[in-house]
Amino acid sequence: MNFKGKSFLKLLDFSQEEITYLLDLSDKFKKMKKSGRKHRYCEGKNVALIFEKTSTRTRCSFEVAAADLGMHPVYLDPAGSQIGKKESIADTARVLGRIFDGIEYRGYGQKIVEELAEKSGVPVWNGLTNEFHPTQILADFMTIREKFGYLKGIKLVYMGDARYNMGNSLMVGCAKMGMNFVACAPSAYYPSNELTNLCKEIAKKSGGSIEFSTDPLMAAIGADVIYTDVWVSMGEPDEVWEKRIKDLTPYRVTSKAMSAAKSSCIFMHCLPSFHDLNTTIGADIHKKFGIDCMEVTDEVFEGSQSVVFDEAENRMHTIKAVMAASLVDEEILNAKV
């Protein structure tokens, strides 16, 4: 289980055993953090955090995780990097690889983070691309294990737009870990056939399953987890709101949907969430379309089954595990943690 020097770009690159190792390491780091035990195992290292898309949880998680591990993080915002503008991705990668011990990238196409990893010569960590969001899935699975004690056999229903990074990554993660994934959405909002077929093959070996449904209440029956995300992703034009609201409102997570699931079912969301009118976008959408929430009702979001803030905290612990595993010898890490 030697991760040193490896990049973390998508869960398709890792086995069930490797993902479990990272989750176990995350649990250990969380206990150390809670007990106040120092864990500066990457003392003296420097990491670049490239954010072509802004963030709250991802940036804070990487910065605090890096500091806890004894590293110095350097944040490069959309205006602070010439990547792909005045300098090619390949050239940027080769420069940063000479300066930093690791690179995080949050931005657009998966090809960008893949090229950074290929050319830089140091571990690269995917903080989000259009196609995949693997560090979020580790946090999600850590949270599910905390609530249920296991992953295999868990039924996870994703409601909403399943075509992009979260739908893709949850489907991949569930297939890898022997979980039962259901994408509940209009058929035009399903993941690609190519990725779906690949995940079905993986699920056959792991004991999991991949299913699709256009009926929210039927999909929710027997669910252990109901998961959703915002309907319009960062960088998409405002013009798509009207169609998304029309198409996806039937897939809003409501108390009725939660009641159709198991009584032990938990609600998850990678955040931010439009569950009320306390955001500029939420207030604007209310003014234009007359709705007071989008992908989830405030009742569910604030209810006893919601674990969204446990999930958000776990971003830091799982990101810490990914970085440490990439930068520290396995024997040293296992001996200390």
If you had to describe this structure to a student in words, what would you say it looks like?
The strands form two sheets. Strands 7-6-5-8-9 form a five-stranded parallel beta sheet. It has a four-stranded parallel beta sheet with strand order 2-1-3-4, sandwiched between helices. The model has no long low-confidence stretch (mean pLDDT 95). Helix content is 47%, strand content 13%. Strand 6 (180-184), helix 7 and strand 7 form a beta-alpha-beta unit. It is globular, with a radius of gyration of 20 Å. The longest helix has 20 residues, at 16-35. With 337 residues, it is of the alpha/beta class. The protein has helices at residues 16-35, 57-68, 89-99, 110-120, 134-148, 165-177, 193-206, 216-220, 240-248, 255-260, 280-289, 298-301, 308-327, 330-336, and strands spanning 46-51, 72-76, 102-106, 124-128, 155-159, 180-184, 209-213, 225-228, 266-269. The protein is built from 14 helices and nine strands.
Spatial shape: globular
Q: Whole-number radius of gyration?
A: 20 Å
Distance between the termini: 15 Å
Q: Report the sheet with the most strands, covering strand number, pairing sense and barrel closure.
A: 5 strands, parallel
* Count of DSSP strands: 9
Number of helices: 14
* Average pLDDT taken over every residue: 95
Low-confidence stretches: none
Question: Which structural class matches the secondary elements?
Answer: alpha/beta
Helicity, in percent?
40-55%
What's the order of the H and E elements? HEHEHEHEHEHEHEHEHHEHHHH
- The spatial strand order of the largest sheet comes to 7-6-5-8-9
Query: β content, as a range?
Result: 5-15%
